[in-house]
Amino acid sequence: MRVRDAVREAAERLRAGSIESYRLDAELLASRALGIRRIDLLVAPDRAVDPGPLEQLRALTSRRAAGEPVAYLLGEREFAGLRLRVDARVLVPRPETEHLVEAAATCLPSRDARPVVCGIDLGTGSGAIAIALLYRRPGLRMIAVDRSVGALGVASNNAVRLGVRHRLDLVASDWLEAFATTREDTREASARFDLVVSNPPYILASEMSALPRDVRDYEPALALCSGDDAFAAHRAIARAARTRLASGGWLGFELSGSVAVGDPASLDWLDGYDERRVIADYAGIERVLLARRCGDDDSRESA
What we know:
Elements: H1 3-16, H2 22-34, H3 38-43, H4 51-65, H5 70-74, E1 76-79, E2 82-85, H6 95-105, E3 117-122, H7 128-136, E4 140-146, H8 149-161, E5 168-172, E6 193-198, E7 203-204, H9 213-216, E8 225-227, H10 232-241, E9 245-254, E10 273-280, E11 286-293
């Protein structure tokens, strides 16, 4: 069999499996299974395919046709210009979350004002947000928090591969529980942050069944579902972060997109935060919420 025939066969099987992006997925899987660049699928379509790689492609195609995410099959996903390793222990990083990274980066104190800055990423998963921020700010140190030890393992692996592990601490905790004021005898309890950022669960339980099957059936439900309140995790984090943010520090969230925030000044669960911003994505959907902790430190500027 030739390369073009192998790709065509994979695409047809994926289309029969109701995969919308069947051609793109077929090319990505073929590139991985055949051990060639995606461009080579086009420039060398008559290259012969050995039986071993062909069987590997057919196996990957069957898994994708059943709904398994391409990112899990490839073991990686690009995010904010970085190639991250991912598997079923973590959510697949999405372009929408890049808006949160970009917005949060503007909230960091200027390099001249604060050469060293500390931030925390709650529910870090693959470490996508924390690592992307570390890449944007050499003087930044981040703490990546997740209740899943498996997810922390993925984040650690990504940080090592991308050369920022020395600036990233990993903590197993349910949100900011490890940093609670009732545990002042611990190192974590003494920490204060310039930035608290999170992409928490925000999909309503009533919406879960309508998700695409590669999300609904394969990605971690605990990282997706917020129950009956899209802002349940946001509320809990905002409340706990008030005692952990430095004066003038910023809190940043990704938003659902399906549940409008409306006027950010009306969000009663942001009491204690004196500046609030809602930022839309390129489609005009409310995607990021920023809130600044009350304080008299007005020396912070965009990084």
